[in-house]
Amino acid sequence: RYCRVNVPDELLRDLLPGPVTLVLERSEELNKDLNPFTSLVGVRIPDHPFMRDLARACPGPLALTSANVSCQGSTLTVLEFQDLWPQLSLVVDGGPIGDSQSPECRLGSTVVDLSVSGKFSIIRPGCALTPTVEILKKKYGLVPESS
Q1: Is the dihedral of CA 72, 122, 41, 21 positive or negative?
Q2: Membrane-crossing residues (predicted)?
Q3: In a 3-state reduction of DSSP, which class is residue 6?
Q4: Is the pLDDT of residue 111 over 60?
């Protein structure tokens, strides 16, 4: 509804829900104030029960960002970003979103641009790079955009 999907539904099911953000061409239905200077939008369905319940309860898309200062590691618990609380209207604790002892969990999602048919481009390697690239190349025959 909010983006133009030009990949098979099965590819979406292989990557989502999970730690992958798909960048696709935005649709006219998406609020123009979200990513106003680009024709693309990142779409993610996290594999976290609380966030999925929250998304189901909302009538439209959720515009979210990581709860950390840019260029710092991803936070995994609400206490890890308590220095930002005074600047926020609401903080909801849905529990940890990863193993705080795992460096991979702090890499954030793998961000992959799928807006060009038949190709992909990795925008951010993130925590799921290897399995994502394997699925895109081996299972669906997509090629890196630079090829």
Answers
A1: negative
A2: none
A3: coil
A4: yes
Alpha-carbon distance 78 to 84, whole Å?
A: 10
What token pair was written down for 74? 């991803």
Q: What is the pLDDT of residues 14-39, one digit of tens each?
A: 999 999 999 999 999 988 887 788 99
In the chain the beta strands, taken as DSSP E runs, fall at 3-4, 20-26, 40-43, 110-113, 119-124, 143-144
CA distance 19 to 44: 8
As beta bridge partners, residue 26 has: 3
Hey, how many other C-beta atoms are within 10 angstroms of the C-beta on 76?
A: 20
Per-residue pLDDT, averaged over 40-68, amounts to 84
Backbone CA torsion sign across 85, 91, 95, 97: negative
From the list 6, 67, 11, 19, the residue with the least C-alpha distance to 45 is 19
* Residue indicated by tokens 């807006």: 115
Instruction: Tell me the pLDDT of the chain averaged across its residues.
Output: 88
Neighbours of 120 (CB within 10 A): 23
